[in-house]
Design brief:
By secondary structure, the chain is α/β, with parallel strands linked by helices. The chain has a single domain, classed as Metallo-beta-lactamase, Chain A. An 8-stranded mixed β-sheet has the order 2-18-1-3-4-5-6-9. Helix 2 links the parallel strand 4 and strand 5. The longest helix is centred in the last third of the chain and has 12 residues. It is globular, with a radius of gyration of 19 Å. The two termini are 26 Å apart.
Length: 319
């Protein structure tokens, strides 16, 4: 796999703009790493505003070899959130070359069709083939089964003239400067996946490993890897470990995205996750989305100089 990693071309700068996340605060200040959206322009505060929701969508831009490439990672929960926020941020869809879906859950695919309908030209859409499996359920503590909505329909995607790339293996996009992990190896003994997740196969209900979970990897020149997760159903430590294996690069500069440490099923592994991240030693840590309030607090306490509080509209720049 290290041979495949050699094909990943290093970049000199990465920008990650949060289009959708669970949290928004328009009064946060800029830092060396993050630029916050302006409250207003010139003398007026607008009546339109950014919105947050339980979901994730990131606009990822890489710079290298004199070229700029941009991809969209997930599309949030609602059909309107990302469209509204791109308009407020004065961002357009024209420069997006590819869309990557981290997994099939509704809080990462909600506005996909709305985005595709507004694109000026066809582009590549990267998904794991298991993302099309349905029905999927979550079993609640009281025994109730809740069915996930079916948000990815292959025929509908193809009718939108996308170049559909289904792969369990790593895929290079953005001129070879962004790697999609494909299915992530699970090697830790404490990251057990989403408790209560079930999928119907051959008429039987079996545990859903959410094997379609995948992440982005970028190699920042002279700094190391930038690992961007959607929900980390494979585990954020497993995700970073796999990124190292795929690329052959040990140094990790930044870890961003949903770490899925929210709720009573995951809070017991917060401290172990922090311990493992301390060993890995990233310079920038940006927990988002499903990481959860308790975990975010602990990251802020344990990594005071590395932690970034994310908010909708923020742009993180790594160079």
């Amino acid at each position: 796999m290290a041979d495949f990693g050699e094909l990943l071309r290093p970049v000199v700068r990465v920008e990650i703009t949060t289009l959708i996340d669970n949290y928004i605060d328009l009064l946060l200040s800029d830092t060396e790493v993050v630029k916050r959206p302006l409250l207003g322009s010139e003398q007026d505060i607008p009546t339109d505003t950014l919105v947050a929701e339980h979901g994730l969508s990131l606009l990822v831009t890489v710079y290298g070899d004199g070229n700029t490439h941009r991809c969209l990672f997930d599309t949030g929960y609602s059909k309107i959130g990302i469209i509204n926020n791109m308009a407020v941020l004065d961002l357009d869809l024209e420069s997006i070359e590819a869309i990557v879906i981290s997994h099939a859950h509704m809080d990462h695919t909600g506005a996909l069709y709305q985005v595709l309908q507004r694109l000026p030209k066809p582009l590549s859409l990267v998904v794991h083939p298991e993302a099309f499996r349905f029905p999927r359920f979550i079993k609640r503590p009281d025994g109730r089964l809740l069915r996930f909505p079916k948000t990815l329909i292959k025929e509908d995607l193809l009718s939108n003239k996308v170049n559909l790339i289904e792969s369990k293996e790593p895929v290079l996009i953005s001129g070879g400067q962004i790697m999609v992990t494909g299915e992530i190896e699970r090697t830790t003994d404490f990251e057990k996946g989403l408790a209560g997740a079930l999928i119907e196969k051959d008429g039987k209900m079996v545990p859903d490993l959410i094997s379609d979970d995948q992440a982005l990897i970028i190699h920042l020149e002279q700094k190391g890897l930038v690992v961007i997760s959607g929900c980390s159903h494979s585990g954020i430590i497993n995700t970073v470990t796999y990124a190292r294996k795929l690329t052959g690069v040990r140094r990790v500069h930044a870890v961003l995205g949903g770490f899925h440490l929210s709720g009573p099923a995951f809070e017991p592994i917060i401290e172990r996750t922090i311990s493992e991240l301390k060993t890995i030693g990233p310079e920038v840590i940006v927990p988002m989305h499903c990481t959860g309030w308790k975990a975010v607090q602990r990251f802020a306490q344990e990594f005071p100089d590395r932690f970034v509080l994310n908010s909708v509209g923020s742009t993180i720049t790594l160079s």
